[in-house]
Amino acid sequence: QMQVVQSGGGLVQAGGSLKLSCAGSGPMFNYFGVDWYRQVPGKQRELVGGITTGGRTNVVDAVKGRFTMSRDNARNTVYLQMSGLKPEDTAMYYCVLRASSDYWGQGTQVTVSS
Questions:
Q1: pLDDT for 78-87, tens place per residue?
Q2: Which of 64, 81, 66, 65 is nearest to 22 (CA)?
Q3: If you write DSSP's letter for every residue of 29-58 in order, what string do you get?
Q4: Which of 5, 33, 37, 52 could bridge 56 with an S-S bond, Cβ 3.0-4.6 Å?
C-alpha cells in the first residue's frame, strides 16, 4: 500500500523560505497528481495548490508568486517551495496523493515569525 511521507518545515522569519517534501513509497506515486493543503487550529483545511503528473501546477491566490511546486520522479517526490513567507502562512501543511484513493502525508508544521 502506498505510503506518503512528508519532510521539511520548521520555524522561519517573515520573508524567509522553506521547502517541503512529499515522498511516495513507490514509483506509482509518479502516476498521480498531488495536492497541498494547510490547516491552522480551529479552522478548516484549505487548499494551497496542486501538481499534475505532467508537472503542471496551480496555486491559490493567497500564495501565488511566492509558492511553487515541482516533482522529481526519480525520487518519487513532490516539493513545495515557499518563499516570501508571511506570519499568516503559519499552519500544518499536508500533501495528498490523488490516486484511486487519497493518500495523505502526516503533515509538517510551518511557523513564520514576524
A1: 999 999 999 9
A2: 81
A3: GGGSEEEEEEE-TTS--EEEEEE-TT--EE
A4: 52
